[in-house]
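EI: anyone free to look at a 280-residue chain?
SC: sure, send it
EI:
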Amino acid sequence: QTLAAIKSGKPASFALPYRLAVSYTTTHSDFESYNVVGLIPGSDKNLKNEYVVHSAHLDHTGIGRPVAGDSIYNGAHDNASGVASLLEIARIYKTSGAKPKRSVLIVMVTAEEMGLVGSSYFAANPTVPKGSIVADVNTDMPTVIAPLLSVVPLGAEHSTIMNHVQFAARQLGLDVEKDPEPSENRFVRSDQYSFVMNGIPALHIKYGNKTNVPGFDMVKFVKEWRAKYYHQPADGMDGIFDFAAAKTYVQLNFLISYSIAQTTERPRWNEGDLFATAGK
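SC: here you go
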């Protein structure tokens, strides 16, 4: 009877003829961990006091439960690859001759794995006036493990940032796909969400599922990869990396921020969007 009620979706409860007493002790320690912020000054006298943020978290999970005798959780994909992407984007800005009209902030945040701690602090207490930040382009575990032919711009559909994504993707011949796993709520699970909650349009570029190999199931391949590497000691530099895909990923993120930096109109939430009142 109880099982039938559960299957029907009705709450089911009943008394148990037992008592249970539980006690536990917890300890905690305080420590300091820092965000790292770099500035690429804008070139336009009217726009240089507005900022486009590139963010990525620089922490992983550290030392944990040993797996096959290895207790070091390296975080090569999650998120050393994201930090490396930001360093390369900064290098492109400094060496390519690109002169963004808006200023660009390179923000490497701490303690994402502990609940978006570093980005939450920065978004609420930025090193520049909060109202001057026009957008955040976040990079978290790009998953560059196969040729990059399409991307999923998580969150871009909520604002005019999508226009910049589509522009950048066209330059690189990439397809733009909808989120294939909307039930996973991935847009609110990384550092871009800290900016969203402070009223700043943001996105997070993830890999797409397009492949040029007949019969190759990208969805299955990624799921199997995640089962082996995600938050595991195996996520090291000796794992799977497609560096050509990584190059394309960096170029795409650079072009998105550069397009935002060059466009006079700042990104805005779509009319009536559920995030339009965030931070107000």
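EI: Residues 34-262 form a domain with the Aminopeptidase fold (CATH 3.40.630.10).
SC: 👍
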